[in-house]
Design goal:
Elements (H helix, E strand, L loop, with lengths): L3 E5 L4 E6 L2 E4 L2 E2 L7 H19 L6 E8 L5 H11 L7 E6 L9 E8 L24
Parallel strand pairs: 5-6
Antiparallel strand pairs: 1-2, 2-3, 3-7, 4-7, 5-7
Length: about 140
């Protein structure tokens, strides 16, 4: 199987495609937004663009890892996430507080997504299981 690297640099690739899966590097704000809502919008736009370059989209995200510099920004990030996420297509997600590489960064998001199996293939939501976690707990 081949490995495709998107925007490969000396220390990382922005995305790597292998075995029907695309792995994105952590995406951070590059547009100068100062508040978490603006940074989250910029990051999610970068995620959308990289997924499109790899041949997939946000409806095929398998897992997302959200890193916040301050958990006090959780609700602000989550409000933007909920507007962006495709209804019924929420990925598995974890959100943690972490010291990010630059002090101006408030949010970093890493995603793993599936490539379509065939042209026009879409994922479908499974029925909700009993004992499901509260909405917004990830």
């Amino acid at each position: 199987m081949t490995i495709q690297r998107i925007d490969a640099g000396p220390i990382l690739s922005e995305a790597v495609v292998h075995g029907g899966v695309v792995y994105l590097a952590g995406q951070v704000s590059t547009g100068g937004a100062r508040e978490v809502g603006g940074q989250t919008r910029e990051v999610l736009a970068a995620v959308d663009a990289l997924l499109a370059r790899a041949g997939t989209d946000k409806t095929r995200i398998l897992r997302a890892q959200v890193y916040l510099a301050d958990m006090a920004d959780y609700n602000g990030m989550n409000a933007v996430w909920e507007q962006w996420a495709a209804p019924g297509q929420a990925p598995a997600r974890a959100t943690v507080q972490a010291a990010l590489a630059k002090p101006q960064w408030k949010v970093e998001i890493v995603v793993t997504a599936a490539l379509p199996d065939a042209p026009g293939a879409k994922s479908s939501p499974a029925p909700a299981a009993p004992g499901r976690r509260a909405r917004g707990a990830g």
